Amino acid sequence: SPTEQAEFVRNNGNGDWVKLSEVGGLIAGSGTSLRLVVIAACYGEGMAQAFVSAGVPCVVAVRLDEKLHDRAAIRFTKQFYLSLAMGQTVVDAFKSGKAALSRQFN
């Protein structure tokens, strides 16, 4: 189910399904410290909660009851990452991404 597991896809396109309850162990076992996770998937709130519970301080995701359309995801992430690259805070970059969606879809 989309709220109980997530597919983590590697650069080569292959992926592994992971139970959301196991995300914390994966992060701890990786030896890295994640500060930001962006989840570009429908119903991403469950995944977001798993990352927050695992100690990631900032997670961007779609609400559990919402679908994410490809065009919207591309528009948002382009603006979001551009804003981060230009030195904006995560909060301001998120607002810029949302504003880009408003301009495109309203």
Query: How does the helix and strand content classify structurally?
Result: alpha+beta
Provide the β-strand percentage band: 15-25%
Sheet with most strands: 2 strands, antiparallel
Sheet with the most strands: spatial strand order: 1-2
Kindly summarize this structure in a few lines.
The protein is globular and about 40 Å long. 46% of the residues lie in helices and 15% in strands. The protein has 106 residues and is an alpha+beta fold.
Can you give a write-up of this model?
The chain has 4 helices and 4 strands. The protein has helices spanning 23-30, 45-53, 70-85, 90-105; strands at residues 5-9, 15-19, 36-38, 58-60. It is globular and about 40 Å long. The model has no long low-confidence stretch (mean pLDDT 84).
Please render the helix and strand layout as text.
Elements: E1 5-9, E2 15-19, H1 23-30, E3 36-38, H2 45-53, E4 58-60, H3 70-85, H4 90-105
Parallel strand pairs: 3-4
Antiparallel strand pairs: 1-2
Helix pairs in contact: 3-4
Key features?
106 residues, 46% helix, single chain, alpha+beta, two-stranded antiparallel ribbon
